Amino acid sequence: PLDGVPEVVDQIPLHDATWALPPEGTDPRVIAWVEKMAHLTTPDTVVWCDGSRREADELIRGMIDQGTLIRLNADHRPYSFLARSNPDDVARVESRTFICSADEADAGPTNNWAEPAQMRSELEDVFAGSMAGRTMYVVPFSMGPLGSPLARVGVQITDSPYVVVSMGIMTRMGHEALAQIHPDTEWVPAMHSVGAPLSPGEPDVAWPCNATKYISHFPETREIWSFGSGYGGNALLGKKSFSLRIASVIGRDEGWLAEHMLLLKVTNPKGRVFHVAAAFPSACGKTNFAMLKPTIPGWTVETIGDDIAWLAPGPDGKLRAINPEAGFFGVAPGTGMSTNSTAVETIWGNTIFTNVALRPDGDVWWEGLTDTPPDGLVDWTGRHWTPLSGVPAAHPNSRFTVAASQCPTISDDWDDPRGVVIDAIIFGGRRATNVPLVAEARGWEHGVFIGATISSERTAAAEGIVGELRRDPFAMLPFCGYNMADHWQHWLDVGEGLRKTGGVPRIFQVNWFRKGDDGRWLWPGFGENGRVLAWILERVEGTAAAVESPVGWLPAPGAIDYAAAGVPDADWAELFAINPAAHLAEADDAEKFFGTFEGRVPAAIIDQLDELRARMRAAQ
Ligand code: PEP
Ligand code: NA
Ligand code: MN
To answer: What is the predicted ipTM?
Structure first.
């Protein structure tokens, strides 16, 4: 065997399973857990994954033979593959995502709670024998740079080779991660099965899964159990399940934050470097903003992460952040040269595509990659497709999975084990009304209030009227592993600590999606968002002027060159227009939302709502 590749040992008598030996020095707790899980799920074979290229090659070759992966034309897309999922397994299933805290109130009103013992008994039933006829892979991984004080380790068990290869891209996976687990290391066991056992001789399918799904989290014991899905956040358990749901609980207990945020490094024309963390709900262009090419002259934006940030007060008293991931699991549709040329350049090769369309030349396509679809497409379900088919060629949640290191704008400090110092935090949403293009929070408490009230209109609301708002506090609605009201208190506490050490970042709100009376976007977005980012960092630097308003500090006249972005004066004024009646109606909606938390919303957040109302009444 190659260096570091475990030798396969024949027939250790465990349900006739063939075992690869765990690498020497493997923590006995990990070995005991793997043995227990193998007894439960009865796989044919157990493989300890080493994270090597050879291992990935073998798994990929097997998936091509099985029909799980289609090899793309290497002349166009070297070492790249297309997977087509089962049509019933195409996205995260929030309705089957559970937080199984001992006390229901600790899950809060925004999570599905399940009683832990009851959930354990259901899981034991569905996992029993669930890997029959399959291989069980043991996938050790580090979220964050190996050995970083901010990094955490986990071990995922899975029966999906697609998941193994994807985890190899999205995390630091393999032997080195396993070697981080010492007898006193806290590690997260992450159990996964697609839930499709094979009886002897039964042929496999390209994308095995189960109609019944469980994405279950046990916050007190830091465990993840995922059953029935092979897709994205349901199955790549280092991502949403570990790095957000479980890590948010660990962070609450230890004094740090696990957030649904992108991370950027920004350099101004004088060469001063800043770092920014920004939270946007899913489908608000986080990956685009993380790969922004600013139109404003002299400014450079580099990428650190596009989905998740872990933020912790550092030894220097400043707020430091890492991207715990090692890759991007980006939405393909809408990614093109005009919207995100950096992403297009990133996925030149070494990329796994899932549920995109296939071109006759063996390359991939999706809506938005080019203006007009090429001829002869095969859609994500494997059927011939034309523009007359009446359905998209690529699934709207189709994805690319690619290493972060392949991104041409990746920052030199993106994997700094100390993390980067955060200068500004941005909260964004998708709002047609009320929320201005940009505002600076009045202080940390006001900033936390802004984060707690992030929302989007369910439908396009008429100007001046509050439509039904979908609340997505901190863009964490599906991802917070505990009561969100406690999450806001935790933010207040972290801010209080940072205030004492002089490391409180400034907080801003942005909204790229405001519309005029006529339904037009008022702001061009994309590269022009760099002008807003520049103002934010000039505020941090103390060089940009602002005017006070009931929603926070707004850019002073002349502080942002909107004319250079092609925005007329009237649209600029509308981007910042404040309708006190609409804000007061929205405040009532926020109060109703806060009411669902049964008295757990922090007093400082209720105070912020009262103060906002007072400012709006004064403006009426
Ligand atoms: C996911 O499904 O894993 C995922 C990244 O989801 P989202 O794009 O909603 O964050
Ligand atoms: Na999703
Ligand atoms: Mn996300």
So the answer is: 0.91
